Amino acid sequence: MSTTLWFARCAQEHYASLQAEVESRDAQARLLRLCNDDVLIHMVGELARATGTCNACLYEATDENVEPLVAQLARAGALVQIICFVSNLDPEHIARLFQSGATEVIATSGAEVPQPRSQGRRVERTSPVDAMQCSGVDDDSAYGGQRCDVRAAPAPQSTVPASMTREPPAAPLDDLDEPEAAGGGAYGRVLERAARSAGAPPVSSPAQKLAPVVVAVAGSGGSGKTTLLAALAAFAARAGLRTALLDLDLMFGDACSLLGSEEPGDIGLLVEPAQRGVLREEDVVRASARVAPGLTVWGPMAVPERAELVTPGVERLIDVLQRESDIIFVDTSTHWSDAVAAAVATCDRCLVVGSHAASSIPSTKRVIELVQRMGVARTRMVGVLNRFGDEGCGEEYALRFEMSCALSAKACIADGGREINDLASFGQLPQALERQTPFARSVDDFAMQLLKELGCPVVGERASSQPAGAAASRRRLRLPWNKRAGDAA
Fold first, then answer.
1. For residue 340, what are the CA distances in angstroms to 48, 249, 332, 335, 354?
2. Which of these three, 54, 81, 112, is where a domain ends?
3. Residue 80 pLDDT class (50, 70, 90 cuts)
């Protein structure tokens, strides 16, 4: 049995309590106590490069420096669990710990833990970060709703029931070429860029706010990821947002055809302009495909064998679209090119899409680990179970999927059946979303929750979300937001 390494930030007298908590989760775990935050961050970074996975416990996490520390540890990408022990149950502080990247907060023996109605000592409350709940299924409470758990720490001699123990982190992927340093290789450049983005000061001016990036990933093909992302993009466009959809399945992507465009764009046209160091307006427009009012698609490539050359163009395109659009959706492939890695590293939300296929759960766990190594905290991931309600994809499987992902934010999309497949194959996915079906309702509810959480100015809230004249105060590219496929340029 493999040994799992945990790091502890605590005083000597608290080491025994943390050791008991860790051993109750994994009897083979080893706990290393560190008192210096800089040493802790350095050790986590080194272990991330060596093994790709570790865990951390922070005792008495009540000082003002612990939230930035949790955020730095989460950005390291290797931490599967970050557990904070607090003696003062301050709801605002606990919420900030979760938002920084903590996976669990445990009250120490000195805290006044409110007793639940049941006899147990576990207390749950709804997180201030909005839960991703779905509609269109029989029982909304069966699956969905983000939870933050606060519970009393066990005494050193206590044990945790077998039903509450967690599986040890999966072994790191040995077949991936990882950079030895932050600047080594394409993935090193991606990680370095993500670290710079994470450390940048927050944008305070509404006129300078960048459009959020939503990326969808899946561990195996056939999960319905492309259909789901195209549906979300269509909903955002109908809600009045300037919506950009990037199809980074560069070789064989078909997002355009699902949305009714017979002439997909060629993102490969950005290769030469990106080599010049800047994308002009005509370059961006020429590589796009006009799909519907408010919705423009870039990708895939007309010459698939040149797919590896387009990464600089994709990075510059995302930079341009963050200033010129309201929201960006990025579809990916199961083959992770440098372009996919660059998009994932800069995303604001990563939708981890799975289904009830035989290999879906193990492959989903592996892709979550990979996304973490790209520098994306688990708090920015959403576990999405697609085709809920189909044969073999009921509440029992949904619970298995949720427990395997171990993500606090989750959602499920109702199965669309043969009707959705037939309409999408003829490019009528937007028309399918206008019908009152369980699939359409669950997509609408999930999309609305996602857009609100990201602060997008949807219809009915645009006036309150964006001051008058804010968009007019900056120059906008004349992108084909308001044109349909087949319109003259």
1. 21, 9, 6, 9, 18
2. 112
3. low
pLDDT at 77: 60
Q: What is residue 7's three-state secondary structure?
A: strand
| Amino acid identity for residue 326 in this structure | D
Helix ranges (H only) for 346-461 are 360-373, 395-405, 417-425, 429-433, 438-453
Distance between CA atoms of 404 and 362, rounded to whole angstroms?
8
**What one-letter code names the amino acid at 33?**
R
List Cα–Cα distances, 467 to 54, 210, 449, 453, 458, in angstroms. 44, 15, 22, 19, 14
- Helices 338-345 and 185-199: crossing angle in degrees, nearest 10, is 20
DSSP 8-state assignment for residue 140: G
Query: What DSSP designation does 115 have?
Result: P
Number of domains in the chain: 2
> What average pLDDT score do residues 82-102 get?
81
Which pLDDT belongs to residue 461? Answer: 42
pLDDT in tens, 440-449: 999 999 999 9
Residue type, position 92, single letter: E
Are 250 and 447 in contact by the 8 Å Cβ rule? The answer is no
Residue 16 located in a structural domain: yes
CA distance 384 to 231: 14
Q: Identify the residue whose tokens are 């969808």.
A: 216
The single residue listed with the structure tokens 């959020």 is 212
> Could you tell me which residues come within 8 angstroms of residue 287 by beta carbon, excluding any fewer than 6 positions away?
265, 266, 267, 268, 269, 270, 298, 317
- pTM for the structure as a whole: 0.58
Residue numbers of the domain that contains 461: 189-465
CA–CA gap between residue 153 and residue 174 (Å, rounded): 35
- Residue in the structure block whose two tokens are 């790191």: 172
- Whether 182 is in a domain gets the answer no
